[in-house]
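Sample 1 of the test manifest.
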Amino acid sequence: MFELHEALARDCVFVGDLPLCRLLLMNDSQYPWLILVPRRADLREQCDLSSDDQLLYLQESNICCGVLRSEFGAEKLNVAALGNMVPQLHIHHIARFSKDPAWPKPVWGQFPALAYTDDRLAALVAQLREVFAACVELKY
Amino acid sequence: MFELHEALARDCVFVGDLPLCRLLLMNDSQYPWLILVPRRADLREQCDLSSDDQLLYLQESNICCGVLRSEFGAEKLNVAALGNMVPQLHIHHIARFSKDPAWPKPVWGQFPALAYTDDRLAALVAQLREVFAACVELKY
């Protein structure tokens, strides 16, 4: 049974469930940062998704990229499945800017997360739910 | 017209052309590290590939992951499209090990590359050509 890894539950905010993935927002105000977690048990690598799930993942990843551009004006996208520390398969989708604190380095391990304010977080989650729900089935 | 970015040409070795991507081996003996570069001009993001090309990419990425496991015994795979410094779309496929120098951090920016010896490089490219050609069309 799928259960979200405790590190992802701690560091991220639940946005909603897409057909395949749980959509999370990383609680780090330094970068617009979405994470897709395929809701499949005991999965560590993207290539171990079934063929059907890979196609679903592709659609959901494309939507994340589109949203990071349309809603946040991403200059560059960083899309990465690393998982060296958190074994549950999760794929980072990060909007990058030439003025963001870690640019041009990858974001991981550069700076401690700066949590959003409660108000900003609530507004962002509402915004994300609205824009995702316009593209794809989203449950929350 | 597709032309490989000079930074990729400098840091990597040509293995062959798959149906969509140029397959490169990063010349860094610290990690088995393949790079896929879709042979499309002026492309910066994976989500901007056409639908057909996305499916081709998916197949070629899956093969890279399989090879990193079968030939190098990867304990973990890191698959990432970053491109903050090199704008041409290229997707890293890296075999990670709990004993590799950067573990568990991402590899980028951790340690300078340690080039393979000429003999080792030639043997590796031959090995990669053989195993890829058994799975997919490969031209070199």
